[in-house]
Amino acid sequence: MMSILLQQLLHEVDQCAIFSRAMQARILDQQTNTATAIKVDGVEIRLIRLPLIEPFETSFGKVDSRLIFLVCLEANGLTGWGEVVAAEEPLYSYETTGTALHVIRDFLAPAVVDAPINGLDDLARRLSRFRGHNMAKAGLELAYVDLLAQSNGQSLSSLIGGELKRVAVGVSLGIQPAVARLLERVERYLSLGYQRIKLKIKPGWDLDVVAEVRSNYPEILLSVDANSAYTINDRDHLKKLDDFNLLMIEQPLQNDDLMDHARLQEIMNTRLCLDESIVNHRTAKLALELDSCRIINIKIGRVGGYSEALAIHDLSAARQIPVWCGGMLESGIGRAHNIALASLPGFTLPGDISASSRYFERDIISPAVTVTPDGTVAVPDRPGLGFDIDLDFIKRLTETRVYISRMKP
Ligand code: OSB
Ligand code: MG
Predict the structure, then answer these.
(1) Which ligand lies nearest the alpha carbon of 52?
(2) d(CA 116, CA 33)
C-alpha cells in the first residue's frame, strides 16, 4: 500500500490541476440561470421515519431512527425532490424538523410559489431575505435543482458542472460501547472497500481509541470528528492526536469559535477540518483567512443549498483547500444530491457518502446506493436525481403531510 504521506503528496499535486479548472467550471452559471422560468404550482412536505440499522452516537447524543423531511416541488407535471437534513433536536444545529416545517410552510414556500423562478440565483436571492434556517432553505433548493435538471433532461451532476463519474467514499463510525465493537466495524467497512474511516470522538473516547485503531491499521486514511466536544483549554490533549498521522481532525471546538480553531491549528501538525462552523461562503472565507482550518467539509444542507455549496467549492479550490462531501444520515434523496455535489472537481477527499444499507433496511429510492469494492459510488447520468423514488413506500411511511399551493392563478 502507498504510504499515507505519498498519497497525500500526490493528492496535493492533483489539487493544483483541479484548481486551475475549477474557475472555468462555472458552466453552472449559464446552465442554472439561463433556464426558462419555472412556475411552481405547489410545495409538498412529507415527514417519514426510517429506523437506523444500528444506533449512531456522536459527542452530542445518540439516535436510533431518522425523521426524514422530504420536500417536493411540483411544476409542469414534474416533481423535484429535496431533503431537509435537520434532526429532531437542536444538537448538531439550532434547526430542527419542527423549525424547518414552520419556516418552510410560513415563509419560504410562499416565496417560492409567489412568482416563476428564473434560475438558481433567483431562488437563492428570494430565500436569502430570511435569516438563517439554511437546512430549510436547502430542502427547497435541492428540490428546485432536481426540477431544473429534469426539465433540461440533464443529470444533477452535469447540471452543476460535475466531472467525476465515480466518487470516492468513506464511512463515519459512531461512538461504540466498547473498542472491540469499533474495531469490528472498522474491519467490516474496510473489507467493503471504504477508502477512509472517520471515528467519532469525545472526551473519554479519544486518544486510546484512536491509538488502538491506528496500531491495527497503520496505513489507512483515518480521521476523527469531535462535533465540538472540546475547548481551547484542551489544546495539550488534542495536540497528542498529532501522533496518529490523521488525515484531519474535524470540528474539535465550538461551532462559532473560528478564533480558537485558528489558535489550535497553529500548534497542530494535523490539519483541522471545519463542519458545523461553515454555514455559508462568508464563514468559509473567514475561516480560510484566519487559518482556522485547512480542509472543509461541505454539507449542502448546512450551508443552505447548492448555490452556497458551489461558492464554497470554488473559493476553496482557488486557495488549494481540499473539500469533501459530508453527510447527515440522509435518505436516498439527500444522498443522491450529495453524490452529485461530490462529483465536482474540487471534491478530492472521500465523502461521508455510504451505501444505503449502511443506514437503513430499505431506502426510499431504487436502486439503493451501493459502494463498489474500490470504495466508490457511481454518479448517475440519468436526468434529475438519477434514481427512482419509491412513492408507495414514502406514502405508507408518511407521518405528516403539508401542502402549500399558489394563491394566484
Ligand atoms: O458531524 O459529520 C457529522 C451525522 C449526523 C450529524 C453530523 C455528522 C454525521 C456524520 C455521519 O458523521 C455522516 C453520514 O454518514 O451521513
Ligand atoms: Mg462532522
Answers:
(1) 1
(2) 13
Query: pTM higher than 0.90, yes or no?
Result: yes
C-alpha span between 231 and 401 (Å, rounded): 41
The alpha carbon of 328 and the centre of ligand 1 are apart by a number of angstroms equal to: 4
Residue nearest to atom 5 of ligand 1 (CA): 328
Q: What three-state secondary structure class fits 393?
A: helix
C-alpha span between 274 and 225 (Å, rounded): 10
DSSP state of 105: I
- Model confidence over 238-252: pLDDT tens digits? 999 999 999 999 999
Q: How far is the CA of 252 from the centre of ligand 2 (A)?
A: 9
Catalytic positions: 200, 299
For residue 77, the one-letter residue type is: G
pLDDT value of residue 406: 80
Helices (H) and strands (E) in the chain, counts: 17, 15
Instruction: State the Cα–Cα distance between residues 394 and 392, nearest whole angstrom.
Output: 5
**Is 352's C-beta closer than 6 angstroms to any atom of ligand 1?**
yes
The predicted pLDDT at position 36 comes to 79
Ligand 1 contacts CB of residue 247 (under 6 A): no
By three-state DSSP, how is residue 376 classified?
strand
Ligand 2 center to 78 CA (angstroms): 34
Residue 22 grid cell: 475549477
Give per-residue pLDDT as tens, 171-229. Answer: 999 999 999 999 999 999 999 999 999 999 999 999 999 999 999 999 999 999 999 99
Question: pLDDT band at 25, cuts 50/70/90?
Answer: very low
